[in-house]
Amino acid sequence: MEIVILAVVIAVVVIGALGGLVVGSRRKKQLPPPPPATPDITAPPAEPHVGDEAETPRDETRRTIEEVDLPDGGTATVEEPPVVEELEIPQIEVPEPTAGRLVRLRARLSRSQNALGKGLLTLLSREHLDDDTWEEIEDTLLTADVGVQPTQELVERLRERVKVLGTRTPGELRSLLREELVNLVGPDMDRELKTEPATGKPGIVMVVGVNGTGKTTTTGKLARVLVADGRSVVLGAADTFRAAAADQLQTWGERVGAHTVRGPEAGDPASVAFDAVKEGKEMGSDVVLIDTAGRLHTKTGLMDELGKVKRVVEKHAPLDEVLLVLDATTGQNGLIQARVFAEVVDITGIVLTKLDGTAKGGIVVAVQRELGVPVKLIGLGEGADDLAPFEPEAFVDALIGE
């Protein structure tokens, strides 16, 4: 009996233990998540159709623009649309007539140049004209950049005439000095600008020179001189190496109604010169002015290129003028430049700029002797009409004063 009871107890314990294991294993298993609830979908408001009545507007209080407070406490302003300004068309200027222009500018020239004439007259007026006095006269002429050979010729003629004629009064000395200086400058040289070719049009003028001599400005002023004489002008901006050179020349042209032909910066200057002559022919212009790049006379390659420009232009027609622009203040150094340019292109005329500054008037004589070509134009200031045709008599009168 006891054995049966013991067996029953063991069986109960075993069954209880097995039951606990089953319950524990069920708790360890994760139940799958419940299915998501179906979201409530709200249909969008229906689009109004044709014929549907609009919603009755609600009565709301509205404020006027005057009642709205602005950030700075001011009143609201309505901005007006910007006014578009009309482009101003540059007015064409009427240049000053060239006839007698140097006479009108004589006072400006004499202010800086008559020291030469006054010095010579003072020396010639001495009571005794000994060798020392004549040496001082030579020094005065050499200081004025007249040159050695012309100075010696002038002094010899003066000594002879003063000795033979016995000229002593101030009026007689002035007349004598004026006559000899005019002869020295060369009154018989042809100083007319060759801008009218023998057959057809246009006349072709090429302007050459070293940087800093005022070459591009001189080209623009020369256009004004020609326009003042009734000529139509085309400008060729063949200085493609200096920044803004073409813009500068075009501005000069626009002032007097001259057409400017230009090319790309650092482009081929010979091509620009060729196109300028071509357009000048097509437009029937009287004169084509070609501004070339400033060449250093020590740079062989650049000087060769200048010769190329000349050859290309002459494929259209021969050049009528080749003007060399020289800075009169450079003195004898300008003669070196002139000599080298003359070897590359055939110089036909000289333009002396800045003659109203510290320049010596004798450079006119020296450069003519050096090249054998006349000074045709002189620059006497920064004004647009301060370029004047060279007149020997008026120039000498400005040198020696009244």
What would you note in describing this structure?
This protein has 402 residues and is α/β, with parallel strands linked by helices. Helices cover 46% and strands 10% of the residues. It is built from 13 helices and 8 strands. The protein has an 8-stranded mixed sheet with strand order 3-2-4-1-5-6-7-8, sandwiched between helices. α11 (332-344) links the parallel β5 (321-327) and β6. α3 (106-124) packs antiparallel against α4 (131-143) and α4 packs antiparallel against α5 (148-165). The protein is elongated. The relative contact order is 0.14. The mean pLDDT is 78.
What is the helix/strand order? Answer: HHHHHHEHEHEHEHEHEHEEH
Radius of gyration using CA atoms only: 48 Å
Percentage of residues in strands:
5-15%
Shape: elongated
Structural class computed from helices and strand pairing:
alpha/beta
Number of strands: 8
What's the average pLDDT? 78
Question: Largest sheet at a glance?
Answer: 8 strands, mixed
Cα-to-Cα separation, first versus last residue: 173 Å
- Considering DSSP H and I runs of 4 or more, what fraction of the residues is helical? 40-55%
Subunit structure: Part of the signal recognition particle protein translocation system, which is composed of SRP and FtsY.
Protein name: Signal recognition particle receptor FtsY
GO molecular function, one term: signal recognition particle binding
Catalytic activity: GTP + H2O = GDP + phosphate + H(+)
